[in-house]
Task: structure prediction
Amino acid sequence: MHPNMVIHLFSSYPRRYETIISRLLGSWGVAKASAPGKLILFGEHFVVYGLPAIATAIEARTLAEVQRAKEFSLLDNRPETPGYKKEKCDQQLDSIQRMLKAMGLEGKKVNIVLGGDLVAASGVGASGASCAAIAAALNEEFSLGLDRDGINDVAYEGEKGYHGVPSGIDNCCSTYGGFIHFRKDIKAGKSVVRQLHSKASLSIVVGNTGLTSNTTKVVGDVRAKREKDPEKFKKIFDNYSKIAEEATVSVENGDLVKIGLLMNMNHLLLEEMGVSCDELEELVDAASKNGALGAKLTGTGRGGLMVALVTGEAGSRVASAIKKAGYHSEMTKIGAEGVKVIR
Ligand code: PMV
Result:
């Protein structure tokens, strides 16, 4: 009998007992959880220094399956931007070990299988989604009883394997889902997350440069540039602070035209900080020329993704212009549900 069937038969029992019963009957279950990817609409890089950012969970998800085993194994079946998984392989293993340690499971042997429809690419929160999904599946498999905040803390530990000292915006998006206003309280080392509710629905087109970026390196480069030219960066940061304030109000009011304008301004600041690249500029240009209300790089930059805000027919115009230019493009729904266990 499949363990899930056993669990189903005893479904009137609390989950703790279901797991025990399943195991007493002789077979380990496969714990499964999924978590969404994310897009940053405002504030990548600035968020590292404690300034606010706005981001959303998207509909595409990573699925993690975890099962106890005699040896550790990892099978990564996620679709990818070519080269992404190879590039991140060492970071991924480090990330998983960090999460096991954070959960008190150091040395435990597990099989991990990753899948789902979220394309593993820079800018879409692929690592954050996989960390949240793996943390939730491990929590389930070992009946640790962590709540959502606990899963988020573990996912953040996992993110360190990829990003050095991440702001935490990716794991928060993947764990809590929805549309969030995020700030890292640098002194307390805590994430401050607030759900945003927009009066308008936002349509987003994503363009993929096909290039994988190295977040630790790009974040490090920005830090070095800021130290070298503090005055220039103070101006950039002050300008961004105003954009972030106005963007929060515009998102809540559903003022699409203003949101678009602010996205364009945010992109110019990121370009000035040196995190754009020719491919991202081409994508932003294609979006703007084809009727997007606003367009900017999203995530680390120097590769990864471009995000464009569109209305009506501009959506398909922007998407086809991006494809015509030789890049991959898709429309996505935003505000998706956060991490969840699949039973
Ligand atoms: O490229 P992504 O999706 O992992 O986003 C990185 C966002 C940064 O602000 C550049 C780094 C961070 O830790 O927030």
About this structure: The two ends are 16 Å apart (CA to CA). The longest strand covers residues 53-68.
